[in-house]
Amino acid sequence: MPETTARAASAASASASASSASSASVSSGAVVAESASVRGRPARIALRGLQVLLALFFGIASALPKLVAHSSAVESFDELGWGSAGMYAIGALELAGGVALLIPVLQSVAAMALSALMVGAFVVQVTVFDGQYAATPLILIVPLALIAWARRRHNADLLRLVRRRG
C-alpha cells in the first residue's frame, strides 16, 4: 500500500512539473500539448470542414465553368477584354488554389493567394461590372484570412522544404 501511495505522489509531482513547464512554454509562444486539447478539437474539425467547402467552391463552382468555357464565363471575360486566355488562367489559378487548400503544407499560402485573387475579383466587379457581385469576393476573403492565420505554422514547414530542395 505505501508503494502505491508513493507512485501516486510521484505521478502527481510529475504532472505538476509538466503543467508548470507547459504554462512556461505558453508564455514563450511555443506550441504545447494544450493545443491538442478536447476544447480545440471541434475548432480544428470546423476549420478543416471550411477548407473542404472552400476547396469545393473554388474547384467546382468557380474554376470549372471557366475551364470548360461555359457561356457565362466566356461572356464575362469577353466583356473584360481578357478573352479565353484570361479565363483559362483565372480558372487554373482557382483550381490550383482549391486543391492546395487541402494539402497541409500549402494551406496557408493557398489561402493567402486565393485572398489576393479575390481582391482582384472585387476590383473587377466594382470597376467593370458596376459592383453587381462585389460582395462575393469580400465574403470569401473572411474565411480565407482565417485559414491563412490558423494554418500559418505550415509556412515554416514549406520554407524548410523549399530551402532543402534549393
Automatic annotation (TrEMBL):
InterPro entries to which the protein is assigned, alphabetical: DoxX
Mode of membrane association: Multi-pass membrane protein
Segments traversing the membrane: 45-65, 85-103, 110-128, 134-150
Keywords, in A-Z order: Membrane, Signal, Transmembrane, Transmembrane helix
Subcellular location: Membrane
Signal sequence, renumbered to the chain: 1-24
Principal cellular location given in the protein's record: membrane
Coiled coil ranges: none
KW Repeat (keyword) present: no
Protein known as: DoxX family protein
